[in-house]
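User: Good morning. I'm curious how flavin-adenine dinucleotide would be positioned relative to this chain. Could you predict the structure with it bound?
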Amino acid sequence: MSQANTWSQHRYRVQSSVAVTPVIRELWLMPVREQIIFRAGQYVLLSDVDWRVPQRSYSVANAPRADGAISILVTRVQGGPTSTWSHALETGDEVLLEGPFGTFMSAADRRGPALLLGAGSGLAPVRALAEDLIEREPRRPITLFFSCRTRADLIDHERFQGWQRERTDFRYLHTLTRDPSAPLHARIPALLADCVGRDLAGWEVFTSGPSGFVVGCSSAAQALGALATDIHTEEFFTDPQPWLGDMPPVPAGRSTMQETS
Ligand SMILES: Cc1cc2nc3c(=O)[nH]c(=O)nc-3n(C[C@H](O)[C@H](O)[C@H](O)COP(=O)(O)OP(=O)(O)OC[C@H]3O[C@@H](n4cnc5c(N)ncnc54)[C@H](O)[C@@H]3O)c2cc1C
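Assistant: Good morning! Here's the predicted structure, ligand included:
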């Protein structure tokens, strides 16, 4: 299979489509001919081959693989054309991917601890980064902290628990924000100091998902000493309708999504 070295657009074929939560599907996409060459943490644009649905951004949820496979985690947005269409894709269907895009990547020279914070489908780029760092820098301390509403919204729970058992330098935490019976059920910004540490100076921090979540995590990490230049953010912008619930209104001056987990 040939490879494209820069930004490019190629057809991919759906290898599988699995509901990983009540509102999120994981799609595995295989290149039909050429593959997009990306780095862990980057995103691609997805559309149908006939350009009937609007092109939308989706973070690649896996580290690069030799076969070019790309996984995406798509939250179904009520009334959203592309997320609704992608949830109906079946094995064998073809789609168009364009990319790679984005700078949500680890600096090449970093060796200190990495803190990966994701909510909902915001798990996608931090899962890709976790896979990549474990492979390339096995001794780098990694903490992956995932936020979702209930146990049914957990993604890859057993897989991350397995990594934690197998690797001394990998730590997995999760909070279930709508389940008061869960050991952790507050939002991540409120849990960071007690669960991760009171001094995040020197940590490289990644936070992805709804804007409110990303902004909240970024502020909390800075308050604990992380440098603004060490904090990478990926905001998904659109507010998934199933998660609107009793969320507070969008702050004045922000037109992007509210916190959803
Ligand atoms: C860099 C990047 C990476 C992304 N990665 C992912 C990912 O990995 N997984 C994922 O599921 N999504 C991701 N997204 C979001 C994704 O690109 C789409 O926005 C989302 O799937 C919705 O697309 P849609 O066409 O279904 O709905 P849209 O047409 O975009 O919107 C559907 C509905 O939501 C409403 N809506 C739109 N925008 C807003 C808003 N700002 N506030 C409130 N309501 C709004 C609209 O009124 C409409 O009714 C990412 C976005 C960015 C920018």
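Residues 43, 54, 56-59, 72-75, 77, 79-84, 121, 124, 234, 236-239, 256-257 surround flavin-adenine dinucleotide (CB under 6 Å). Helices lie at 81-87, 123-136, 157-166, 188-195, 211-223.
Let me know if you'd like a different ligand tried.
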